[in-house]
Write a structure and sequence with these properties.
Distance between the termini: 22 Å
Organism: Idiomarina tyrosinivorans
Bound molecules: flavin-adenine dinucleotide
Largest sheet: 7 strands, mixed
Number of strands: 18
Number of helices: 15
Radius of gyration: 23 Å
Helix content: 25-40%
Protein name: FAD-dependent urate hydroxylase HpyO/Asp monooxygenase CreE-like FAD/NAD(P)-binding domain-containing protein
Number of domains: 2
Structural class: alpha/beta
CATH topology of the largest domain: FAD/NAD(P)-binding domain
Shape: globular
CATH superfamily of the largest domain: FAD/NAD(P)-binding domain
CATH class of the largest domain: Alpha Beta
């Protein structure tokens, strides 16, 4: 019987276990008495699906200071980089970040007894008859064991399952690019998506010196945000957790979205940005390109507006626990997709590359084709303006499915289905914040962290917030275990 079983060994699991280690150290214990198991179907523990070995030019979209895996120690990664690889660069490759995560996970084992299991979890069964609310886990190998608490850190699939146009020969699963990107030499290529992943495709074609022409397309044709030359998250003045907390206390009830937006508006206004055109930019392709060029110019000369977003995210994310569930749902319905688009941004030199390619015509921006048909191994796209173009390759670089319902890991859905008839909503499985405990899990200790609980939190794909929320979950789980085992000395 384990105390905690963590499903998945990616960035979220690593951050969570770092916090367990930290809590053990703070309680004065040299070695934790906890029995912990971590299960992942892939053996590169720590890297998860995103930070596995890939091309070295695929860099993190977030600067080093926001990527420390240790809660309350924002210089942990910077110090590790200086010591291990003698670099002080602001942006590191995803490979290097994966190595850092793997090392962090190894260091956890110095004070925590962790059993790593390389297998796939096929079933999680909350044992309902048991008075102690244990949970049984089954693996592909047929092995089965029990735990007092389960942490879903399973992320969500990066593959795009549905096929918008019903055609077969398209690249749907992109990462790692090293093994999934087809050879695009002297080809016409249509890439669905105009954001971070499509920029990965463009920069990879550039580095591999493919002589190809790429059309990137999306519904609005909006291009990503750009990170500034000076990459500093701008400390907000109005969008502060303390300010929101004051509002919350004054109102005597949960904050509304309107309250949150009011402070966001003020913040943007203080930087001479009109919130409406910022959040809902004009739709025309030419407009989108000129907005992108303006972002690039401001990023070249100083802070970009993205730095402001970067500064606001942790404050708003923390405020989320004060927001009423109905407001949270409203947010998911109306704003989630916009916010996701806005808080992703590309580093300056990738933005410059994209701008150059838009200039010389090797990359073209377009709205989604109204139809796409496959004929004799080619793809014929018809665009809303009536124009037609023939492509050799079609690549989906849109991330996972748009519907939030599917962001909830299927394992979580299947587990909750065993406990209640209506376990999750169209906004994904809900978790209690700040503990991360899954709603509707009865008396069982079922928690979801990171992308596994994406459906219930708008800022989950920001690693800084993953670290913070995983820490809160770690504290909540320890408290729960202490209570349920009557072991007052556990991490007290
Ligand atoms: C291309 C790309 C670039 C990104 N860049 C950044 C960035 O620069 N900054 C940033 O903050 N965020 C970035 N993100 C967001 C990123 O997803 C998160 O930062 C973080 O990596 C999520 O980690 P995770 O552990 O929650 O999920 P994952 O990395 O998906 O890990 C989940 C793990 O669970 C395992 N698993 C799942 N199901 C099972 C099962 N049934 N049995 C066994 N094992 C299972 C998987 O094998 C996997 O290893 C990026 C995302 C992408 C796709």
């Amino acid at each position: 019987m384990y105390d905690i079983v963590v499903l998945g060994a990616g960035a979220s699991a690593t951050a969570f276990l770092q916090s367990i280690k930290k809590l053990a150290q703070m309680s004065g214990g040299i070695e934790s008495p906890l029995k912990v198991a971590v299960i992942d179907r892939q053996s590169q523990y720590g890297t998860g699906r995103v930070y596995q070995q890939d091309y070295e030019w695929l860099i993190m979209n977030t600067p080093v200071e926001d990527l420390s895996c240790v809660y309350d120690d924002s210089s942990h990664l910077a110090n590790w980089l200086k010591k291990e690889v003698s670099t002080s660069s602001k942006y590191i490759s995803r490979n290097l970040f994966g190595l850092y995560l793997a090392r962090c996970l190894e260091s956890v084992c110095e004070s925590l007894s962790v059993h790593f299991i390389n297998d796939t979890v096929v079933d999680v069964e909350p044992i309902v008859e048991s008075s102690s609310n244990v949970v049984s886990i089954s693996l592909t190998s047929g092995d089965r064991f029990q735990s007092k608490a389960i942490v879903f850190a399973t992320g969500y699939p990066l593959d795009l399952k549905e096929d918008l146009y019903g055609i077969e020969n398209v690249t749907k699963s992109l990462y790692p690019l090293q093994s999934n990107l087809p050879c695009l030499e002297k080809n016409e290529v249509l890439v669905f998506g105009t954001s971070l992943s499509s920029v990965d495709v463009i920069s990879t074609c550039h580095h591999l010196e493919y002589d190809c022409k790429i059309t990137i397309c999306s519904r609005t044709g909006s291009l990503p945000n750009v990170k500034g030359q000076v990459i500093e998250p701008v400390q907000p003045k109005f969008c502060l957790y303390s300010e929101y907390y004051k509002d919350y206390r004054n109102k005597g009830c949960a904050l509304s979205l309107r309250d949150i937006l009011r402070r966001v508006r003020l913040e943007l206004k203080s930087h001479c940005i009109d919130w409406r055109s910022y959040l809902f930019p004009k739709r025309g392709i030419e407009d989108q390109i000129s907005i992108f060029r303006r972002r690039l110019d401001s990023a070249r000369t100083g802070n970009s507006s993205f730095d402001l977003v970067l500064g606001m995210i942790p404050e708003i994310a923390e405020t989320w626990a004060l927001v009423d569930t109905s407001q949270l749902r409203l947010f998911m319905e109306k704003f989630q997709s916009r916010i996701r688009a806005i808080h992703g941004a590309i580093p300056l030199h990738n933005a410059q590359l994209l701008a150059n390619k838009l200039d010389n015509g090797t990359v073209r921006l377009s709205q989604l084709p109204s139809s796409l048909v496959e004929r004799n191994g080619k793809h014929i796209a018809t665009f809303p303006d009536g124009g037609q173009k023939v492509y050799d390759h079609v690549i989906f670089a849109t991330g996972s499915r748009r519907s939030l319902k599917f962001h909830t890991d299927s394992l979580i859905r299947a587990t909750l289905n065993k406990l209640t008839d209506k376990p999750y909503t169209e906004f994904g499985a809900e978790v209690h914040l700040p503990s991360g405990r899954l709603c509707n899990s009865g008396g069982h200790n079922l928690y979801a962290i990171g992308h596994a609980s994406e459906g219930s939190h708008p800022f989950m794909n920001n690693f800084g917030w993953i670290v913070k929320s995983s820490h809160m979950s770690a504290k909540a789980i320890i408290k729960k275990l202490r209570e349920s085992t009557n072991n007052e000395s556990l991490f007290s």
